[in-house]
Amino acid sequence: MPYTKIFNPFKKSKDMKVVEPQPQPLKHDWFPGLNALRFIAAALVIVMHIHNNQGISGLPQLPAFPVLFKGLYAVSFFFVLSGFLITYLLLKEDSKTGTISIRNFYLRRVFRIWPLYFIVIVAGTFFYWQLVPQLGLKYDDNYSHALAITLYSFFLANVMNSLYHVGGILHVTWSVAVEEQFYLFWAPLSKRFIKKLPLLIAIVSLISLAVNILNTLNVFHYSDGVKQVISTLQFHYMGMGAGFAWLVFHHKSKLLKLKVFSSRFLQLMLTALIIGFFFFYQKTVVGEVLIPLPLGLLFGWLIVNVSVNEKRIFTLEHPVLNYLGKVSYGIYMYHMFVVYAVSFVFAKVPVLQSVPVVYFISFYCLVFIIATGLASLSYYIIELPVLGLNKVFTRKKSDRLVLKAA
Predict the structure, then answer these.
(1) Please, which residues have CB within 8 angstroms of residue 134's CB and are 6 or more apart in sequence?
(2) Interval 3-36: pLDDT, tens
(3) Residue 149, C-beta contacts closer than 8 angstroms, at least 6 positions apart
(4) Which one-letter DSSP state was computed for residue 17?
(5) CA trace torsion 306, 310, 316, 318 (10° rounding)
(6) pLDDT tens across 354-370, in order?
(7) pLDDT cut 70: percent of the chain above it
(8) Angle CA 95–98–103, to nearest 5
(9) Domain boundaries, the chain
(10) Which candidate, 123, 126, 134, 179, places its Cα nearest to that of 156?
(11) Are 186 and 238 within 8 A, CB to CB?
């Protein structure tokens, strides 16, 4: 008798052997448009630091437009993006090999993250501890150098930078440290609970979100330094990014059928909402309690919509934006050196400030051009060669066994 029941691919039957459908990951690790988003986020951080440094240096500043203070939210976007990409790659590796190599995962992070991080740490500490005193510049060095070296070496820059005033060059390292802390536990837990990853994502995200909200409301009554440390631990944003990665990997078709992806009108509204947030939102305690969850979901939606939705209303794929995104890690890590240098020049040559429009355009453009040039040199001279070593250390286990047998 022919099988006439409605076929349910997820329900086993006594009459037939059902093979559960396997997720169809992207054929490559390239997500269109994400490089552009990466650069835009880095640009928002740089704009904030330029504005703040101009004030500290006694230079003219633009009016206090809200968009000039959105650098921290741009970093939150980085966290969502990081959680998305890392988790997608872990899911893809498990799908292809049946397991996740924690060793190779950590090695990839070492070769990608560590070189620039430690370059900035070494250069920054030398600048503040040696060069600044010799130049007779004011710097409040009220912390133990041994403590600083220890915390920075173990990727606890967020702790160091929250408890002490370390200067802008070193301050940018906090977000890198938080990502490394997340990676430290995320890869092993993902491997252990790969079949229950949505539950793991929900637990990590909700706990982190609850702690951050309670900390914002000062429920714990911690000191300002400790409160600042807790506020840096934005694992909920990385967890939300991981959630979107799981949905794209396992349920891409169903996800993209949702109105927020299929409707051009809703895409337009959500895009306008994100742009409006960055240009008009004014920070308040109530706002900081209410926005993390919807903001993380909006960031996740933006990442998916730009990178995998064929019905997206706009594309960010452009050679220039792709390149700027490719070197954006260097732009982010080195930009404070450039901001300091440009501020120094403009402060020493007052005539450069005489025409406000020319002053502001030239100041911002110089910072971005020089930072991009410096990041480009770093990318080709340091980052790419180091990344090439990654292939040597992360060869498949089978390759190593063949070499050993030979």
Answers:
(1) none
(2) 334 334 344 444 444 444 444 455 445 799 999 9
(3) 125
(4) -
(5) 140
(6) 999 999 999 999 999 99
(7) 90
(8) 105
(9) 34-391
(10) 179
(11) yes
